[in-house]
């Protein structure tokens, strides 16, 4: 293994230059590395000790890392140090500390990397009093950096706030890949940790790490660690008690379910609960399957969109639509309150006036019809939002809005027809003779919408007018009637504008 590490280090670039003078006094003896001037000790990180130094060939400050003296006789420690160099050399990302140089000086391995002047992630969040939105915005960049490492075959295995430094400009930087491993199952570096050996920082390690199942580790272990970090930044606490013995800490990681974040901080919403708890699932198959999925839900939360971590129920999607359309929702809510208030009055009258049972029964049926109309109105409103997204080619948003439609509803058939990529000529027969055969006006409306999106305004106008030619159409489907009349008005306005433009050109001649 040591020969392999020597080869790996030997393939990386080294610097040349005069031997540096000894730096200022430090708590422990500074190393002598050719081409570098040691300035001061920074501290320890994983398997090594880090020094602030000046790279003489470039005159820039760097962080110089060498193995700890007490680990120089450990072949496994040196192999891990070599692995850290090799894996970091793969990465070139603005949010990952960049490695500049590596080599061996008088039998001492070393590497120089970008010097990050910053504070740990949790300290930055505390000092800047970040809100939940601020925390999630910061974690977007952290997730992007970890996702980049995963795409290049590197699993960090020791993600924690102290390994993410945030600079003054608010940019996080992931560092310390001392425990990193590779995605490839047959990579020699994966054998450095023996099965059953616990490696990592207990408070942030995944259950599979806590159990020592190193051969089962994949990128979802980092997803779990990011979940712990996110939990801590949002609540100021860890998901479970780690201020105890190692055995009890590992037991808590493996068996104890974390408290919902909203029970610690009341202002956190259920979407954040769902997001964090999905990242902290004990079983890897129940977590986000990649950091990209976690970052996607963070992006959706910041945009006020439905999350993957939440079930796409009609009620949940309706709440999201309401949140994004507050004025319309306020009107609808007022109608609901009026209906519910009227229902309460009616029920109270039923108790007091038994002799008016028939009259009250009629009122109750009327209320049921009103509620049914309201439900249909809500369904129509969601379908209207779907049409807007479909016309503007917002494919993902249109797909989300289409989920609440039941499989046998006309809206579901409409979605299936509109999202069918086949030419219109191949779909018309299925539309008119299929599930919408009993609703010819609605089928004609869908054809008009299709023509409109294709830019065939004349056929669209013709189809819309055929919808209105049915005498009972406006009585049976007022929402669709209003929509069709609005479309015809828009088309007439377009025609007027075209006529005015044409007339203006002619007059200029």
Task: Explain what you see.
The chain is α+β, with helices and mostly antiparallel strands and 509 residues long. The protein folds into 4 domains: 113 residues, Phosphorylase Kinase, domain 1 (2-Layer Sandwich); 192 residues, Orthogonal Bundle (Transferase(Phosphotransferase), domain 1); 85 residues; 99 residues. 53% of the residues lie in helices and 10% in strands. It is built from 20 helices and 10 strands. The strands form 3 sheets. A 5-stranded antiparallel β-sheet has the order 1-2-3-5-4, with helices on one face. A hairpin with a 2-residue loop joins strand 1 and strand 2. Helix 17 packs antiparallel against helix 18 and helix 18 runs antiparallel to helix 20. The longest helix is centred in the C-terminal third of the chain and has 35 residues. The chain is elongated, with a radius of gyration of 32 Å.
Strand content: 5-15%
Stated plainly, the CATH topology of the largest domain is called Transferase(Phosphotransferase), domain 1
Q: Rg to the nearest angstrom? A: 32 Å
How many separate helices?
Answer: 20
Helix fraction?
40-55%
Tell me the number of structural domains: 4
CATH class placement of the largest domain: Mainly Alpha
Shape type: elongated
Structural class: alpha+beta
Write the H/E string, N to C: HEEEHEEEHHEEEEHHHHHHHHHHHHHHHH
């Amino acid at each position: 293994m040591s020969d392999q590490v020597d080869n790996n280090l030997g393939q990386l670039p080294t610097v040349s230059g005069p031997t540096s003078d000894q730096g200022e006094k430090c708590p422990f003896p500074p190393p002598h590395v050719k081409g570098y001037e040691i300035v001061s000790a920074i501290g320890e990180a994983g398997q090594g000790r880090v020094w602030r130094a000046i790279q003489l060939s470039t005159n820039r400050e760097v962080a110089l890392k060498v193995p700890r003296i007490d680990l120089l006789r450990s072949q496994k420690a040196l192999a891990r140090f070599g692995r850290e160099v090799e894996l970091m050399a793969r990465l070139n990302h603005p949010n990952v500390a960049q490695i500049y140089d590596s080599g061996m000086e008088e039998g001492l391995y070393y590497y120089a990397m970008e010097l990050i002047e910053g504070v740990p992630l949790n300290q930055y969040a505390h000092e800047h009093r970040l809100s939940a939105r601020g925390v999630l915005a910061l974690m977007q960049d952290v997730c992007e950096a970890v996702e980049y490492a995963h795409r290049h075959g590197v699993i960090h295995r020791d993600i924690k706030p102290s390994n993410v430094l945030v600079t003054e400009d608010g940019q996080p930087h992931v560092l310390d890949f001392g425990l990193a491993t590779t995605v490839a199952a047959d990579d020699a570096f994966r054998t450095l940790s023996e099965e059953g050996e616990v490696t990592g920082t207990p408070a942030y390690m995944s259950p599979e790490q806590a159990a020592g199942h190193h051969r089962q580790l994949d990128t979802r272990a980092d997803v779990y660690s990011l979940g712990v970090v996110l939990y801590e930044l949002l609540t100021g606490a860890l998901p479970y008690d780690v201020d105890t013995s190692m055995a009890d800490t590992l037991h808590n990681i493996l068996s104890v379910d974390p408290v919902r974040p909203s029970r610690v901080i009341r202002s956190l919403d259920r979407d954040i609960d769902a997001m964090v708890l999905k990242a902290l699932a004990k079983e890897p198959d129940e977590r986000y399957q990649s950091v990209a999925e976690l970052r996607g839900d963070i992006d959706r939360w910041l945009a006020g969109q439905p999350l993957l971590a939440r079930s796409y129920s009609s009620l949940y999607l309706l709440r999201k639509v309401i949140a994004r359309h507050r004025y319309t929702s306020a009107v609808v809510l007022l109608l609901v309150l009026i209906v519910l208030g009227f229902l309460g009055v009616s029920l109270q009258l039923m108790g007091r006036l038994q002799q008016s049972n028939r009259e009250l029964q009629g009122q109750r049926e009327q209320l049921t019809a009103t509620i049914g109309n309201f439900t249909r109105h809500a369904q129509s409103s969601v379908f209207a939002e779907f049409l807007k997204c479909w016309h503007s080619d917002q494919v993902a948003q249109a797909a989300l809005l289409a989920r609440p439609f039941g499989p046998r509803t006309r809206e579901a058939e409409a979605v299936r027809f509109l999202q069918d990529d086949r030419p219109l000529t191949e779909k018309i027969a299925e539309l008119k003779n299929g599930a919408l055969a009993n609703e010819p006006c609605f089928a004609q409306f869908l054809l008009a919408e299709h023509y409109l999106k294709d830019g065939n305004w004349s056929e669209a106008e013709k189809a819309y007018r055929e919808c209105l030619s049915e005498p009972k159409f406006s009585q049976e489907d007022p929402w669709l009637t209003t929509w069709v009349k609005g479309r015809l008005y828009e088309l007439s306005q377009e025609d007027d504008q075209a006529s005015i433009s044409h007339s203006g050109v002619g007059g200029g001649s």
